[in-house]
Amino acid sequence: MATSAWFSGDVAASMPDNTAMFLQYEHRDGALTLRPVGRWSIDNAEVIARELRALDRDHAAQGGSGAVRVDASGLEALDLSGGWLLYRRVHAFGEQGAEIHWQGGPPGQISFIEKTLHDESAAAAPAHVDEDETDLTESVRSVGQWALLQVRSFLDALAFFGRFCAAFGAALLSAKHMRLPALVRQVYETGVQAIPIVSLIAFLISIIIAYMGASELRKFGAEIFVVDLVTVGVLRELGVLLTAIIVAGRSGSAFAAEIGVMKLNDEVDALKAIGTNPTEVLVMPRVLGLIIALPLLTMIADIVGLLGGSLLTYMLLDMPPQQYFARVQEAIAPTTFWVGMMKAPVFAFLIAFVGTLRGMQVRDSSRELGRLTTVAVVQSIFLVILADAMFAVIFLELDI
């Protein structure tokens, strides 16, 4: 014979007349049907808990049941506090051996609680799997994540390059998009202000090359070829390469840091809000300015490097400057100087492009700013050396 109980009378009697009932339940044919109604929120948690305890007493008096059906369609509101009370009660029925059936599926809060508890249990439980299989799975997952990250990074760089090309095309069509004051300022900051450090490095490197060459070639009585070594080494490779590396550490990091700080301060968003293209204002002057400045710095580095070699050969080999520069004219081919100069604009573009790209990618925190500034320097130096190696192969094939 079916029995039913719509909330226990003793609990209802203990509550004020205007207190709403939050739980209706019914025992029929050996199954328990629960119907939570009203607002199951933290404000009503105490009353709901009392009603659930009354349910426990009545359910025990009925001798338990083999199935529990839960119909949550009557709920007006359900927060995590109410969801936890309902989940804990239904889960207890399940642990007692009852089959749980949610009519229309469990509410989202119940699903969230189940997933959270399941994830915590899975994390705490020991993994009974083969170690080799686990290592292989983790390795494959790591490789996949790395590959996806590289693809995403490449697509971001490609999109950034497209925006730069669009801004550059607009500047070619209209002079007002060129931002000449910003361009001149970048040439001054990346070029003129870098002359002392570039000159010093070029001078020291040429002295080192001349000293090492003189020490070795003196054994064979070929000291005159020290001039060839310094000339070709500085003009063709070291002048432009070392200058590019110095500029990458000096200006590339500055580009990333300056634009990154502007991103953190929402200045880039402000430019967009007033209808200004950030690529045109922030990126293009820096890229074009460095493309102009780096060849000039390379020329200065070449001159200072040759002067440094002249000084050392005079001190170690008693070679007068007139003889030194006469030998320089004999050592260089018509393409020696231009081989180094051709590399400078390419290196400049790579440095400025990477620096501005990483600056535009800064998000959320100063820690991300520092990380991307470091990435900008490392990647720009790597790309400069890679491009130099590619130039070496190309010039070798062309016999230049």
Describe this structure in words.
With 400 residues, the chain is an alpha/beta fold. It has 2 domains: 9-124, Transcription Regulator spoIIAA (2-Layer Sandwich), CATH 3.30.750.24; 152-398, no CATH class. The chain is built from 13 helices and 6 strands. The chain has helices at residues 9-14, 45-61, 80-95, 108-124, 131-173, 180-190, 195-217, 225-264, 267-273, 278-317, 321-331, 336-360, 366-398, and strands at residues 23-28, 31-36, 38-40, 67-71, 75-78, 99-103. The protein has a 4-stranded mixed beta sheet, with helices on one face. It has a two-stranded parallel ribbon with strand order 3-5. Helix 3 crosses helix 4 (108-124) and helix 8 (225-264) runs parallel beside helix 12. The protein starts with 8 loop residues before the first helix and ends with a helix. Mean pLDDT is 85; it is low at 1-20.
